[in-house]
Amino acid sequence: MNFNATLIGQLIAFTVFVAFCMKYVWPPIIAAIEERQKKIADGLAASERAERDLELAQSSVTDKLREAKDEASKIIDQAKRRASQIIDDETQRGHTERENIIAQGYAEIEAEKNRVKEDLRKQVAVLAIAGAQKILAREIDAQAHSDIVEKLVAEL
Amino acid sequence: MAYYETTQDYINHHLTNARMCSTDEGIVFNKACEDVGFWVWHIDTMGWSAFIGISFLFLFWRVGKKATTGVPTKTQAFVEMVVEFVDDSVKSSFHGSSKLIAPLALTIFVWVLLMNLTDLLPVDLFPWIAGMIGQYGFGMDPKDVYMKIVPTTDINTTFALSIGVFILIIFYSLKIKGIKGFTKELTMQPLNHWAFIPFNFVIETVTLLARPLSLSLRLFGNLYASELIFILIATIGYLQLPLHFAWSVFHILVLPLQAFIFMMLTIVYLSLACEEH
User: Fold this and answer.
1) Which of A1, A4, B155, B171 pairs as cysteine with B40 (C-beta 3.0–4.6 A)?
2) What residues contact residue B32 under an 8 Å CB cut-off, 6+ apart?
3) Is residue B160 a contact partner of residue B220, using CB atoms and an 8 Å limit?
4) Is the CB of residue A40 less than 8 Å away from at least one CB of chain B?
5) Dihedral, B64, B69, B73, B75 alpha carbons, nearest 10
6) Distances (CA, A) of A154 to A114, A122, A127
7) Which residues lie across from B22 on neighbouring strands?
8) How far apart are the C-alpha atoms of B27 and B18, rounded to whole Å?
């Protein structure tokens, strides 16, 4: 163990190595490491955020689903109620209609009956006159006794 | 141990660095450099440490250049793991803001760790390869070819590291506290009275100097001792195999620990230097 010029040589080598390391080796490596650390931290934060978002979305979906179900059952109820109401209304209307038709029929029948009666009466009158004419042809002038016949017809 | 007459020779050979120096006869190696004094270069220490440091920085630089912020490749994941480990260590101990501390800690940790890990390579392998190259390539006696590959078992390496750290300690102390604050710290602690200024100064200077000294001697001592024991185990014949295994397993713990301690203490010392009172 003796000191000699090697000391100077090694000191120079050491200085050069440290200077090189400081200028060309350390900065890019540490920059890469720190950048990656930042990236990983960002990624973790993003995934956490996404998880929270998902949870939120799931709970809102459940809410929406429940709302929709409620709405649907409400609509169905309404529809049922409406349907039964329509049925009731129609039945009611049908009844009224039927009664109207029946009443009309009766009225028509009545009118027809009256008309036929009138006709019959007129026919009977004509027949009666014709009979009377035949009976009285010889002695009674149709013109002179028509007022009597008219009165007879009115009485029928 | 084939070439060595005694165990002593073997150990000495394995603990000697390959040296290079410049004399009147031009550039000479090893034994010719014995009397030169300071201007001797340990070419194995410098070569291996430079090779290791450049490999590490090249790998990390390439990963950094291609770094994606998306899914990383396996290499990038590994490099990022190391960088994050160092970054966490720095953030837990150093509370100032400095662009230098973290890369400094990374360089120290990985470089020292890799230099330490060469301790786990078989002790004879590289001296043997170097000896073969010396013998058949240059016609040298393999005993005269030295190759000590673990750079942190060379006190010059550990002191170079700690002197670098020491210069930074002084630099940051002056930068953050100013000359006045730094002088005050050296002279007015622990006893805040003008009469104790010399006493305080001695104590604080010793504290200050003990930091780089303990930093480098701890690393050097641990690695030198472990290398020496690997070499000693290699001298005892067939029984060396289980012992080498056990000692290596133990060093899977020790070698990273020493690198970690060096990095951690560097961070702590610099954090103390940056602290304002």
Assistant:
1) A4
2) B21, B23, B25
3) no
4) no
5) 30
6) 15, 9, 14
7) B27
8) 13
Geometric angle at alpha carbon A85, from A81 and A88, rounded to 5°: 145
Asked if B156 lies within 8 A of A13 by C-beta distance, the reply is no
Residues A79/A85/A87/A93 CA torsion (nearest 10 deg): -150
Spatial neighbors of B173 by CB under 8 A, at least 6 apart, are B182, B185, B273
What is the spatial distance between Cα B88 and Cα B109, in angstroms, rounded to a whole number? 13
Quote the CA–CA distance of A62 and A65 in Å, as a whole number. Answer: 5
Judge whether residue B20 has pLDDT over 80. yes
Nearest of B176, B162, B253 to residue B210 by alpha carbon: B162
Tell me if chain B has a CB within 8 Å of the CB of A27: yes
The half-sphere exposure of B253 on its side-chain side, counting CA atoms within 13 A, is 4
Chain A positions touching B61 (Cβ under 8 A) are 20, 24-25
How many CA within 13 A on the CB side of residue B139? Answer: 0
Note which residues in 111-130 of chain A have CB less than 8 A from chain B: none
Q: What DSSP character marks residue B99?
A: T
User: How high is the mean pLDDT of chain B?
Assistant: 89
Which amino acid type is present at position A62? Answer: T
Q: Which of A61-75, A129-143, B133-147 has the highest mean pLDDT?
A: A61-75
pTM (predicted TM-score):
0.76
Tokens 């250049």 belong to B65
